[in-house]
Amino acid sequence: MINTLIETKDGITSVIEITGDKYDMFLQLRESGIERRPSDIRISDEEGDDVRVKLCAENEVGQHLARMSDGSSTLDDVCRAVERVNNVRDIIKDEVCRRIVNDEYDHESEIADDIRGLMYDRGSVSETYFFPLTAQIVCDDEYDDDITVDEHDLVFYEDDIRKAFSSYTERDTQNMAEYYHSDNSVGDKLLLADWGFRCLHGRLYGTVDVRLTEPLTKDEDERLRDWITGQNSDGLGEGFEQQPIEVGDGVMYVSFWNSGDEYFIRDETEMDSCFDMQM
């Protein structure tokens, strides 16, 4: 979509194709003898810069994306913009491209926000699913035992957990709904799936807020819950539970899944019913 002419002060000149794959771009830079990360290369063609960069594109969308870049933008920003456009769902792609061509965006982050808004507007049904969290604190003192944090005490670490999760996912250019690859009707109905956290009745739970084109059938709902469980155990959750979270007592690790018999994926109605029964 966009080609990049890069000139270094050492006399290296390369043409890099920005496909939207940041790893591909990194490899192209390395193969060209440029030992710098895309996030460290500014879009600048000024005399005296260590690296001079020119963007060019043949199609109209690429031209306007290139025009969006300024002196504060990096190759990484351009790559993410291209990736967002390449991966946007067909139901809104024409509209997103139209807005790009009309210069309605000033930065690639605005494209992301708009894509999310357009996808949300295509839906008519929202649902929230809850799941229990487990956590361990590895203490700073080697003589102290690790601490298991229960669901009640987790509320005191809510801000730390939210910040860590936000940092872990900030580079994602696709909504989690795009990773639903099963070939069935759930994938057609599922527009957005956002993992997060909510305090309920004094306990901190993990949540997944979904936006749908229409209500799910009972069978579709079960398949969606199975997918959420899979993401919690082997996908998004598996990656996050390896992220250290600095807390006062040491380093915390939070898991979205556990093998216990009491593990669950419940919707809001089921959560309310569960608490009503306990009361």
List the helices and strands and how they pair.
Blueprint: E1 2-8, E2 13-18, H1 22-31, E3 51-56, H2 60-68, H3 75-87, H4 90-101, H5 108-121, E4 125-132, E5 134-139, E6 147-149, H6 158-169, H7 185-189, E7 190-200, E8 203-212, H8 218-234, H9 236-240, E9 245-247, E10 250-255, E11 266-267, H10 268-278
Antiparallel strand pairs: 1-2, 1-3, 4-8, 4-11, 5-6, 5-10, 7-8, 9-10
Helix pairs in contact: 2-4, 3-5, 4-5
Query: What is the count of β-strands?
Result: 11
The SSE string, one letter per element, is: EEHEHHHHEEEHHEEHHEEEH
- By DSSP (H or I, 4+ residues per run), the number of helices equals 10
Largest sheet: 4 strands, antiparallel
What percentage of the residues does DSSP assign to strands (E)? Answer: 15-25%
Number of domains: 2
How helix-rich are the residues, as a percent range? 25-40%
Question: How are the strands of the biggest sheet laid out side by side?
Answer: 7-8-4-11
Q: Which stretches of 5+ consecutive residues score pLDDT under 50?
A: none
* C-alpha geometry: globular
The radius of gyration over CA amounts to 23 Å
Distance between the termini: 59 Å
What is the SS-derived class? alpha+beta
Q: Calculate the mean pLDDT score and round it.
A: 91
